[in-house]
Amino acid sequence: MELHQLRYFCAVAYNGNFTRAAKAENVAQPSLSQQILKLEAELGAKLFDRFPRSVRLTQFGRTFLFRAEAILRQVGEARTEIEELAGAEKGRVVIGAIPTIAPYFLPPVLTGFTRQHPTIAVSVMEETTPILLERLHDGRIDLALLVLPVLGEELICEDLFREPFFIVVPPKHHLASRKMIDLQEIRTDPFLLLKEGHCFRENVIMTCRESKLEPNLVFESGQFSTILAMVSAGMGVSVVPAMAVANRQRCKFIRIRDQRASRRVGLAQLKHHFATVAHRALVEHLRHSARERCMYRSSRTSQIPLVSARCTDQKATQ
């Protein structure tokens, strides 16, 4: 059994298709297929059920996937440990982030990190929280940037900052001139919200329940940009986190008076995951960036804040 066979097997399992797996591994499909057949022959078990345009793991395949991922992860960690002993600050870190954080928080943060650490490559995987936690456990990402709390005894979770929510209304709305309002003041307005699968949707629904508000939901989308465009067109009102607040001529952003209308943005990592120099450098940079945003917010209290004042570097296992 060869390591490249394990890589090919995992690639086929992840992609559900030999063609896509071969492309991901940068190898010819006939060669990949042949290696999978050799692996099945050596194991004496069929790993995939093959269909015209896809494949599906058999019971044997599902069991073997867990072992193959563990072997590849251990080999990768052994390699990085050797590199660390050599004393070189280099390597690759994969960070996962939810869609309501990734495009707003990460671009300036990673630009600064790359400038300071040019020999470290950073990859970003943007997915919803359940998928990120799955990727974290199977070793495809090193850390996850998401909304806390998340549960799991095997996780180490750390708050970066608390971010307030804003109500967004069209410019001619009767509340548009206000600087702060209660959620109850929009109880009769048509409400626009992210679709199911996004944790921010659950954050908003919970906030509404705490304010005894039943939103008049009329539109759902998977993107804040679409929701803001609909609000600017006069279709209704919505709630967005501070980092999604933008200078849009046809949108007015109003702070919610209730301080509970906020979310905890933080990091999740596996307790037993080997943290390389590159990994540790990125985590420290994220902490530093969060502290800077907190201070920046304090200097802009008369304008739209980016994050709230409640910031912490303390680790807390969820």
How would you describe the overall organization of this protein?
This protein is an alpha/beta fold and 318 residues long. The protein has three domains: 3-83, Winged helix-like DNA-binding domain superfamily/Winged helix DNA-binding domain (Arc Repressor Mutant, subunit A, Orthogonal Bundle); 84-161 and 265-316, Periplasmic binding protein-like II (D-Maltodextrin-Binding Protein, domain 2); 163-262, Periplasmic binding protein-like II (D-Maltodextrin-Binding Protein, domain 2, 3-Layer(aba) Sandwich). Helix content is 41%, strand content 24%. The protein has helices spanning 3-15, 18-25, 29-43, 59-85, 102-116, 129-137, 199-210, 224-232, 277-298, and strands spanning 48-50, 55-57, 91-97, 120-126, 143-148, 155-169, 180-181, 190-194, 216-221, 237-241, 252-256, 262-270, 315-316. Helix 7 (199-210) links the parallel strand 8 (190-194) and strand 9. Helix 1 (3-15) crosses helix 4 (59-85). The model is unreliable at 301-318 (pLDDT under 50).
